[in-house]
């Protein structure tokens, strides 16, 4: 079986979390909802439906969900041509691939958004597959995206590492029995990521790349 390096995308490989915060805030504002950016930030990483429910509650007018999601998509779409990859993201994927790791992305993005993210990463030559929002019935923190990524990688949970930047990423990895590594690039506190299951926390992809030989990836390569 292959070793699999599974990656979240938003906030992990591409610097987009705060763009999502602002565009969700504006979408809520346009619909007459007063939702703080702090609360939105803590919800980033959830799929659209789950994010709206998390912020507005189960008793909200669910008929409004589609309008809110469409507004966010429209607002966020204005950034598609200039989404910035995070420092070291491309190099990290390529180095892991050169060591025999099968790279699979696990993201709540789909359609044009996913295309824009992949363009920003610019590493399609080493990406073996993508588990997108279109492939699963439940998003993070449910394990479905991680399970789908494992299927695409043709790997077992014990042979995989999931790298993400949110509490939801860590919980999804844990629910799938996959080792979790966190990055601080999404703006979530180290303690929160560790509490949610992160075995190691790095500042950004570049730091993980620079410390790869002492990381969980290297430990697994040595059979530890």
Give a description of the structure.
- One of its GO terms (cellular component) is cytosol.
- It is an enzyme of class 3 (hydrolase).
- There is one protein chain.
- By secondary structure, the protein is of the alpha/beta class.
- Helix content is 45%, strand content 13%.
- The protein has helices at residues 17-30, 37-43, 48-56, 65-77, 89-98, 111-121, 144-153, 167-175, 190-195, 205-210, 216-221, and strands spanning 3-7, 101-106, 127-131, 160-164, 179-183, 200-202.
- Strands 3-2-1-4-5-6 form a six-stranded parallel β-sheet, with helices on both faces.
- The longest helix is centred in the first third of the chain and has 14 residues, at 17-30.
- The radius of gyration is 17 Å and the shape is globular.
- The model has no long low-confidence stretch (mean pLDDT 96).
Determine the mean pLDDT: 96
Give the overall shape: globular
CATH H level of the largest domain: which superfamily? Answer: HAD superfamily/HAD-like
Count the helices. How many?
Answer: 11
The CATH class assignment of the largest domain is Alpha Beta
CA-atom Rg in angstroms:
17 Å
Q: What structural class do you assign from the helix and strand content? A: alpha/beta
Our count of domains comes out at 2
What's the arrangement of strands in the largest beta sheet?
Answer: 3-2-1-4-5-6
Q: Return the CATH architecture of the largest domain.
A: 3-Layer(aba) Sandwich
Largest sheet: 6 strands, parallel
Distance between the termini: 17 Å
Please trace the helix and strand order, writing H or E for each element.
EHHHHHEHEHEHEHEHH
What is the β-strand count? 6
Fraction of residues in helix? 40-55%
CATH topology of the largest domain: Rossmann fold
